[in-house]
Design goal:
Length: 437
Amino acid sequence: MRILKTVCKLVALVSLAAMPAAAFAQGSSINTFSPYSFFGVGDMFNAAPASIKGMGGAGLGYRSQYEINFMNPAAYSSIGRRSALLHVGMEDQNFYLKSSTTKTSYNTFNVSDIALQLPIAKGIGFALSVSPYSSVGYSVSRDELGEDVWEDIGYVHYAYSGSGGVNQIKAGVGWSPVDWLSIGAEAVYYQGNIIRNYSQTIIPLTGTGYYVGVNSDNHEYISRLMANFGVQARLFAKENSSLTLGVIYNMGGRLRSRISETIMHGPYYTTAGTDEIVNREYRSAFILPDIYGGGLYYSSPKFSAGLDYRFSAWGANNGLSDSDLTYRNTHSVAAGVQFIPNPGDVRKVMKRWSYRIGARYDQYYMVLNGQAINQTAITLGVGIPWGQRGRNKVDVGIELGTRGTVAAGLIKENYFKVSVGLSLFGDDYWFVKYKYD
């Protein structure tokens, strides 16, 4: 009976972990609303638990036996022999965009990530997670009112729209051969669809009809398997405090997504037909970057602090760029702190809460019209333990940030994000051969 109970729990947890995969495939189009997702694979997603997001996203050196850290596969070994961890995250995003002439806003809400972690043997842990890698979502239009066009025909309306994104499904193992060192590796499957549309419409001066100059549909289908690697080394430990170094390498390479492109010319008027001038399929030459990262994480019962740095080699795509767009290698820095007033206070529950603050600086991987796009953000967060021993918890993170500029005809974005994460801790023996049943 004990074995049957364990197997049933395992099947239930794996089923929960697999449920969002289909939802991500269909719902990733509402994960962002940004003209900066116009090119490449779109707007990059900050894949981290809500607790780490509240600390600016600094967590490459973080390890805990009560919470999943899917930022570094080396952290998977931290799980105890009698543990099972499940994490579900959700995120609400509010975008406020402005150019030199217009303003707009948009709101999205979706499940952001889900992860499951289990022990395999002493010092070995397994984890499975699903989260967005990037998102595409934009709707941009403009009118051309040149005098020569207006006097002879009317005006020209250009419309661009895009939706979809790329999801990442990760399965990895972390192994701690000695007490102070852990190494990890995981397979990463990138999957997704991106749809981009473009139309050029001529609105005549007289009559009720219209002309369509060009109508383009571009569908990109992504399916690619790669890998991530990580190391965590404890630099020192004293009483209940420790300092851990975390290092990661995310393998890049050619995406080789399949693109189906159709371009139609016409109709020249509402009653006329269309001419198909392009109908082709080809493989994308776009390259996902090699990513190198390192971070330090200090942990004690009351105070914790993290500092991360990442380098992403997006410049490998420069052969694909044109005069108005170039790719660049990017640097990002994240830092944050956490404070728990009194972890052992059984009378005043708010003294057991975790209070967090952090900051982040990111460089966008494209340079548009000669303008480098950078992003800065500050974060706040709180962790609320619940349950008999307080090992289950709800984490809430808030991020206030800005990106871009109104110079050179570009867009400045201000945004407000709320992340909510639910972490569940199970206490039972897993993968143990019982002497008696």
